[in-house]
Design goal:
binds magnesium ion, two-stranded antiparallel sheet, 14 helices, Rossmann fold, five-stranded parallel sheet, binds thiamine diphosphate, 7 strands, 2 domains
Length: about 400
Amino acid sequence: MSVPHAWTPPTSVDAPTPTPEQVVAGLKGTDEGGPDLVQLLTPEGERVSDPRFDGYAADVDVESLKALYRDMVLVRRFDREGNALQRQGQVGIWVPLLGQEAAQIGAGRAMQPQDMAFPSYREHGVAWTRDIDPVDLIGIFRGTDHGSWDPKEKRFHYYTIVIGNQCLNATGYAMGQKFESKVGEGADAEATICFFGDGATSQGDVHEGFVWSSVYDAPVVFYCQNNQWAISEPNERQTRVPLYKRAQGYGFPGIRVDGNDVLACLAVTRWALEECRTGNGPVLIEAFTYRMDAHTTSDDPSRYRLADELELWKLKDPIERVRVNLVRQHGVEQEFFDSVQAESDELAVRFRDHCVNLPQPAPDRMFSQVYAEGSPNIDAQREAYLAYHSSFDTEGSLAGPSIEGA
Ligand SMILES: Cc1ncc(C[n+]2csc(CCOP(=O)(O)OP(=O)(O)O)c2C)c(N)n1
Ligand SMILES: [Mg+2]
């Protein structure tokens, strides 16, 4: 009997080779909002209805909308100050959130106090909604600490630099919530929300998080801020399908929301967290947004993207559409906007003062948080480093690491 030694793929009339036009159309499908985009506030500031989600934003009256506006303006203001501090040599790096204020404030304000968040490194807006003072973020970027908030108290984990890793942490945490019967109909039921980017979806950690959370029905909302770029890699180098559709392959719902629409982000995330709290998780949300600044202050986006792309997204600015809605639909006076602006400037001054006055940590501090109970290897490294450090006997340029000169 002859055994075929090479397998030839069956030809199928159902799956013809796509034409170049179809391939291009598929790619475009990943980089346009598309008909599935959930929106409650248009870029022109007009309130539109989405029968699936209107109910989740029904309580947002003019005062609540003003509060969301204030959140976004304050967050944008200290974000800009972070950039300025880096340019003036006061921090080593800053990771701007410019353009992603609605995606973060909407999701953050959808959380209940008992819910838990796992951020990446850009979630300054979510941190704000967890009642974390922005000054507690800046030490990470000045190199004095890893964040000075209590993750348990604030229900907001430390920042994660390793791309996608927090999806595993969040999945494990959510599985714990499930195993400890914290999921259910009660008012104190809990869920987890995990923040990551479009580029992170190409990481194995995200895939593993999706698989585990799916088969264990873990109460976790995967909140992907698709800001169109992973440093210099455009979205179409991560996927041939819209990211929210990936969820289907793992067996849970995926939904795409206008990430520049704070109302829609609030409503959709409220829905998704509620699904998770009541045992119907996980859920994937793709917040379709845009990174309006560089990846970090170390990056120069003019090297890899066209300026008109940014100009187009400026027309979809997340803050401006709320301002227009407040003025046109609710007759909010200029006085309110001026007061928010003044408040944001005060915050920026406090942010800056705190940053430049942060005490310089002891030189061996970096060794003290590696293991809870120490290790002979780390102890030896500490000794060697301190000996080296003390070999510089004068003040000045060789006097060891100096934050003042950073
Ligand atoms: C495992 C890992 N690989 C590579 C990097 C370097 N890196 C830092 S940010 C980034 C891009 C991430 O893009 P995305 O997930 O879209 O998030 P965004 O920065 O756009 O918010 C990369 C590749 C890293 N930090 N971790
Ligand atoms: Mg990205």
